[in-house]
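Protocol step 4 of 6.
Sequence for cAMP-dependent protein kinase (Polarella glacialis) entered exactly as in the expression construct, tag removed. Do not edit the line below.
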Amino acid sequence: MSQEKKDESDLTGQTLAVTDFTLGKTLGTGAFGRVRFVTHKSNGKHYALKTLKKAAIIKMKQVDHIVSEKAILEKLKHPFIVNMYGSFHDPRHIYMLLEYIVGGEFFTHLRKAGRFENEQSCFYSAQIAAIFEYCHNLNIVYRDLKPENILINADGYVKLTDFGFAKVIEHRTYTLCGTPEYIAPEVLLNKGHGKPVDWWTLGILIYEMIVGYPPFVDEDPMGIYQKILAGKIAFPKVFHKEAKNLVKKLLTPDLGKRFGNLKNGAADIREHKWFKELSWDDLHAKKIEAPFKPTIKNATDTSNFDDYPDSDTEAPAVNAAQDPFTNW
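Step 5 output, structure tokens:
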């Protein structure tokens, strides 16, 4: 997406309402609401509208998380991160107007393929590494990497979405969050965590792409946690030698040895032999031909997203005097 096109789509600062949009298919659902495909009636452009129920957010004491997500998205401008193009609210809901990524969830494509070849896994991993380096330079820790939070664009490049767990962390924080298979040992041990957790999750993702499932699996979350703390990783024969080497350096419980957290920071990952054929500048400029492009009919195609039933329950209105989102 070129810079000019971005500016045309950007409605930040404009007074918006749901009635400004034609609502389409639900693209995803979560604890507080859903994301829908929408078209702006005036400019004709397509977006993903994240609609969250105020009452549910207040009840679950998640106001700070949601406010933080919006503030973080306002700061971020990166080719591999979903752009936020506006925000608004009404008595029942808060809204985030996001870039629509037509290729759907990375998770869906990975499950269809079973697993990815080495070259494809390397291509995606490099983009996630670039995102983390960019975020960490702003002291933003993402904390929730998993295939469901990655989207694939028409050009075959990734877009990271859902910054609900992201946090500005100068040193460390103690909140337990993340998906069981992706949680780093320091989070489980409640030792305080920061940027290194993201590099751990990159190691898990690389493994899952190459093998088809994460390295620590169990029916029960407690079983997963025990395996993470035991730290035994089986590498099937499909693993490329250099990929295995990098995964081992990322999935190191000792923070003093984990790649991404040493004195050279993200450069240790960028300069790793697994990425030796890759030009980071070309990747950032999207000059590298993607190994896979999703099948897309047109800009309004939503077929790469699963179908979700519509919600029939109306969210209760929040009293204006008790509304923590008045400045939204």
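Step 6, annotate. Residues 106-284 form a domain with the Transferase(Phosphotransferase); domain 1 fold (CATH 1.10.510.10).
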